[in-house]
Description:
Order of helices and strands of chain A: EHEHEHEEHHEHEEHEHEHEEH
Strand order of the largest sheet of chain A: 8-7-6-9-10-11-12
Oligomer: homodimer
Radius of gyration of chain A: 21 Å
Shape of chain A: elongated
Amino acid sequence: MRIHIQNDPDDPLFEITQADWQAAAARAHGSGLDGSRHDISIAASAAGFAAAIGEAEALVSASPLVRRLFPAPAPALRIVFCTSAGLDRLAPFDWLPEGAELWNNSGAHAAKGAEYVLMALLMLACRMPEIAADQRARHWQKRYGSALAGRRVVMVGLGRIGAAAAALAARHGMVVIGCRASATPHPDCARVVAPDALDDELPRADAVVLACPLTDATRNLLDARRIGLLRAGAGVVNVGRGAVLDQDALCDALAAGRLGGAVLDVFVPEPVPPEHRLWTTPNLVMTPHVSCDDPASYNAISLDIFLANLRAWRAGEAAPNRFDLARGY
Amino acid sequence: MRIHIQNDPDDPLFEITQADWQAAAARAHGSGLDGSRHDISIAASAAGFAAAIGEAEALVSASPLVRRLFPAPAPALRIVFCTSAGLDRLAPFDWLPEGAELWNNSGAHAAKGAEYVLMALLMLACRMPEIAADQRARHWQKRYGSALAGRRVVMVGLGRIGAAAAALAARHGMVVIGCRASATPHPDCARVVAPDALDDELPRADAVVLACPLTDATRNLLDARRIGLLRAGAGVVNVGRGAVLDQDALCDALAAGRLGGAVLDVFVPEPVPPEHRLWTTPNLVMTPHVSCDDPASYNAISLDIFLANLRAWRAGEAAPNRFDLARGY
């Protein structure tokens, strides 16, 4: 197949190189898939894209770019693989060329993202948000935390990141309550509930983790009313999307000392501007949307996912990472 | 036996109550040990101690107190059990009544302490010390971290905390190099070296964890020269004792941006005074000596350890937690 790889010139840390491709093809070959029979072009410029897209059958693209690349004449294009998992920022999907299907990079973030969630749960159990505030104030104040075993976490979203995080939390003895649209049971969850049962679970939780995609159904899911249902001292973690949470209501609850702390990796807007109240809200730990990406392994994992999907697709099966445009994930 | 429990009036969070004792005795009874045949007295005052110690055969005491309690006429006393693991602050041990042996609380801190170390290793891998500095400066700066798998940690000390931390680190795919006086192999360590081989390991480490007791042999173990052997970007964790580390040399290396960060729970002196440079050293995360203590379970674990040791001692065996006065742990 003719495959074009379009890199983001503003994000050189995640540039996919010929060497990355060859290594992935060799892994696919080694594991019985054949990744070596494709014609590969790689570009980072608009001119490079224009030169290649006319004959490309598959496009591998950094996600923030892809909306700007189209419209473009791409009569042979059957697959657009974006190297992000959450594609909410690409909606509406009217840019997608007719005849092409959209694949996301779900799965690339599971290992790193789950470790970030585990770190956040440990930081909340150890009362690190309060202790960090003490440190800034040069104030020595014993604040004893607790071990994870027996603590109760509500994991909203059991996609690749949420499921991997649930597995780690359960392995450390936490009681994990899953929450997803289907409410299907999950082996690492004591129980899985549908979003309409969330109100019953929140008052008993020590922590809530948001690991779901942003869709019409999840926008503002943890709103002011639900934040009010959390018990005093509970913690909030967000690795999904900023808009799943009422950020302002969370800041109010933290400023009032009602919650134990929050560890957030995603915000509205990003980057967070210097004057935003988030920066100075007490007991809030912020990271700049880096929770789930490990540059050392990201391209390798992404290409492995692409090639595994390509193999399924070429065998006439549904690609596991095919993005459902209507559902939004 | 006549057992006296002396609580620290300045530390009410860790007060051992009659209910704690009865619960521990019931657990011992349930597991085939008999903890119920003892006469128990409990006090927090000097008068309460004086009234009980004359007939006590065993003393259970909060550690900071015990040096101040003696000398006192204690002709029947055979056991002093301190509810801390590191008893360096009780040296020299000339206060210990003749005929009594000293037991420490080694083991009580393993689960909580190991989780703190795991949290610290995750924070270093996620570059949280740098990201926290960005947050204070209201500065949005992408800093990508890495997953734990494949990262290399040198674990100095393989006592209860160090061994439990090594197990967690190994479970997350880290390469753990142990370091202890005996250099005896350990199942969770790729290799265990003696302290004199530490210089060969430091340049290859992503992180060094100090989890050893403070003794003449470990004082200033991670000195300026050894800190200089660490590679650029490496991290340091200390859950042992502040004096195991040259704190000033570490601050210099952090201030120079040579290291990736440090997560310290123990210091010289404690409490750290407000004017100390530690508070403002960049990329340093400080916690107020709380890493290994979970008040919710501490007394239960402590009394279980005491009763298990008492059973061994009454059977004529060596108590596993008998403190070696010469060795210092």
